[in-house]
């Protein structure tokens, strides 16, 4: 089961999962404008991210996903090249934890809004492989589930605020005028 311990598995799972989002999210967002209006009024702390998602075209969204893929690939490559360096392993495991929780979040979103959100189907399909990779990585690193969750929380605190920035970069890079708003 060596392949279920390779950091590159995270990249493969991300590509499969985000492929669903790339294919369906921009159109789904357009078709659910009323839902986004309701969410923006009920969840004002998400208004900025929801606004960015609503005003992304396909190309802009694809660039944002490509940036996320680059970050995941960087952490996976570092984990492959330097497996003996503890902080690199911990960083990779933390990103893996964040990805796995992101999968759960898709299912929770769908339950919350009573609609299947793009990304939910592949979240269900890649959850178990992601969990197995997580288990294998923490066993290999000699840390506990709880400690890996703690590290994942730290990474979440650092990276979640970057999500709107990634969306803005995608918006900027694909816009003909290249003006950040």
TrEMBL record:
tRNA-binding found in the keyword field: no
UniProt-listed InterPro entries: HXXEE
Organism domain of life: Bacteria
Bilayer-spanning residue ranges: 61-81, 87-105, 112-134, 149-169
Pfam families: HXXEE
Protein's UniProt keywords contain Transmembrane helix: yes
This protein's UniProt keywords: Membrane, Transmembrane, Transmembrane helix
The protein's name: HXXEE domain-containing protein
Organism from which the protein derives: Leptolinea tardivitalis
């Amino acid at each position: 089961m060596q392949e279920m311990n390779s950091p590159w598995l995270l990249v493969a799972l991300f590509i499969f999962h985000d492929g669903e989002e790339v294919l369906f999210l921009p159109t789904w967002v357009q078709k659910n404008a009323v839902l986004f209006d309701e969410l923006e009024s009920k969840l004002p702390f998400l208004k900025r991210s929801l606004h960015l998602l609503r005003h992304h075209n396909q190309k802009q969204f694809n660039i944002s996903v490509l940036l996320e893929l680059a970050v995941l690939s960087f952490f996976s490559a570092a984990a492959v090249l330097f497996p003996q360096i503890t902080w690199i392993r911990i960083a990779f495991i933390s990103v893996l934890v964040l990805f796995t929780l992101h999968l759960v979040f898709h299912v929770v979103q769908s339950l919350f809004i009573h609609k299947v959100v793009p990304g939910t189907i592949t979240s269900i399909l890649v959850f178990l492989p992601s969990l197995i990779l997580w288990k294998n990585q923490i066993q290999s690193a000699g840390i506990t589930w709880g400690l890996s969750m703690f590290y994942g929380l730290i990474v979440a605190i650092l990276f979640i605020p970057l999500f709107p920035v990634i969306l803005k970069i995608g918006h900027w890079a694909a816009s003909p005028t290249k003006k950040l708003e």
